Fold this sequence. Notes:
Strand content: 15-25%
CATH class of the domain at 1-111 and 269-367: Alpha Beta
CATH superfamily of the domain at 1-111 and 269-367: Isopropylmalate Dehydrogenase
Largest sheet: 10 strands, mixed
Distance between the termini: 24 Å
Number of strands: 12
Radius of gyration: 21 Å
Order of helices and strands: EHEHHEHEHEEEHEHEHEHEEHHH
Bound molecules: nicotinamide-adenine-dinucleotide
Shape: globular
Amino acid sequence: MTQKILLLPGDGIGPEITVEAEKLLTVLRDRHGLDASWSRAYIGGAGYDRAGHPLPPATLDAAKSADAILLAAVGGPKYDTLPKDLRPERGLLGLRAALGLYSNLRPAILYPELADASSLKPEFVSNLDLLIVRELTGGIYFGKRETVVETDYKVGSHVIPKARVARDTEAYSDFEVERIARTAFETARLRGKRLCSVDKANVLDASQLWRQVVIEVAKDYPDVELSHMLVDNAAMQLVRGPKQFDVIVTSNMFGDILSDIAAQLTGSIGMLPSASLNERGQGMYEPSHGSAPDIAGQGVANPLAMLLSVAMLLRYSLKRGDLADKIEAAVRKVLAAGLRTGDIAKPGEARIGTAAMGDAVVAALGA
Ligand code: NAD
């Protein structure tokens, strides 16, 4: 059955890199047996400009009926003064909530040709290929919160007569941990079959439950090697020896922090895709970078994170891992051939534009 993809170009460099994604999809459909069709809708600032809302109802309807969504980026200075509910990122957050996208997959890959871009020495990061599976709809970002004034508030031996106190709650149910753990084990099965669960089980109750449930779920995946690591150690190990990891699964807040560390290890935000999935395998795929308003409209944006997001879409939602492999191999080929957009070029190195990079990837796909 023909699968439906919704393209959401959004703002800034979004439309430019979406053109390259569409070019790639067209070639995969015409020459590589991809059975998919696609349409476009407006989101973010573009949604506000067209329909007065960052997530217009027509866009939400189209997203609900799509098998997968490819979103470029939203936001820009033009929209910074809008009220909170009309700001571009509300479109993105609204879509995540409406589709129940609870698992966030963020790979950090460092191609050997770009190893110089990392702040770590090349021998520690060259050929890095790890994936962080972050729980996206639970934990402290969604738990009960309050800011109150309390009397006689105790801090060790101090008693504060009148203190302003703010509380956020880290809460996880076994249901939420089990479903993200299953996503992580399934994902590890598609890769190196090693899963590291990161928590703070020596201190937090929510982490102790997390660890227990992950151990229970592991019984269904005897082919995947499970380990556990405390989050402070994980942060250190990511910088000390990131290549020891294959897949990491962790809570919303820990994943937020660790995935930014991992992304930074690669030194090139224009290279990193991401995916957010729900229970039905429906997913939203997007580059990890933003709308880069500083270079929008110049034809110089790096389209590779977007093209690698297409690869993730094919692998995880359309179950065409074979085509995903082809895209990833094509990206490796163009980098090995020395082609660089401005963000990944070394000083003095020749640079090509967005369209030329997209064309090169399509050409490198082969027959
Ligand atoms: P950004 O990622 O847009 O840009 C940071 C820097 O990286 C800029 O110098 C930019 O030119 C460069 N860059 C980013 N992507 C690039 C690419 N593909 N090719 C070449 N260079 C690239 O982050 P920012 O500047 O903090 O945010 C700009 C806007 O994007 C803001 O409005 C922000 O809210 C929004 N944003 C959106 C998303 C999203 O849509 N998921 C994520 C982050 C930021």
